[in-house]
Amino acid sequence: MDVYQQITFSDNVLENIEKIDPFAIIAGGAPRDWEHGIVARDVDIFLHVPDSWTIGVITRQLNKVCNIEPSAFKGEERMQWYEKNPDIRAVFDWNHLGVDFQLIVVKKPVFDYHRNFPLSICQAMRKNFKNYLTTEFKASKVTKQIYITNKLYNNADAYVAKVVSKYKDMGYTFVGSKEDIS
């Protein structure tokens, strides 16, 4: 699958998720990679649902719009990665026709959720068949520097290392120190 096919396919999945949350977005790594002409490893879709919805209700709704099985809910095993992010309520891992998706249910509306991401190069989202980039993202792309914009959560060292190593070959450098990521 090439970048264009992955984008088109992901837009179609997002349209289905919007039946649950009209403000749902694709955010983070996938739109960041697409902006650089790279096929994303996975696609994160962020959505918000009423607080009264249990995991069972969320699962049934996802099954209804996308045929996502209950086994996609990753509970404690997935939440360990996100445990220090107080906004994340649940994560569903789903492979659909060869594309890995993470459906991330957060506790607040998500339309501009990408602005909360801790690294400048990750502040990208996709909605209505278009990428939206923060000023910080655009500055990173122009200067080839990745910097911290917001609080980092769990596994900060691993997260920064993963992003920086992915973009090092493209000439990006991390501007900061170990103290910045703790």
Number of strand segments: 8
Uncertain runs: none
Structural class: alpha/beta
- Strand line-up across the major sheet: 3-4-2-1-5-6
Sheet having the most strands: 6 strands, mixed
Q: How would the global form be characterised? A: globular
Q: Report, as a whole number of angstroms, the end-to-end distance.
A: 37 Å
Helix proportion: 25-40%
Give the SSE string.
HEHEHHEEEEHEHE
Q: Tell me the number of helical segments per DSSP (H or I, 4 or more residues long).
A: 6
Instruction: Estimate what percentage of residues fall within beta strands.
Output: 15-25%
Radius of gyration: 16 Å
Mean pLDDT: 86
Give a brief outline of the structure.
With 182 residues, this protein is an alpha/beta fold. The protein is built from six helices and eight strands; from the N terminus they run αβαβααββββαβαβ.
For this entry, give a set of tags:
six-stranded mixed β-sheet; 6 helices; alpha/beta; 182 residues
Topology readout:
Blueprint lengths: L2 H15 L7 E3 L1 H7 L7 E6 L6 H12 L8 H8 L5 E9 L2 E8 L17 E4 L2 E4 L1 H9 L1 E2 L9 H13 L4 E2 L8
Parallel strand pairs: 2-4, 7-8
Antiparallel strand pairs: 1-2, 1-5, 3-4, 5-6
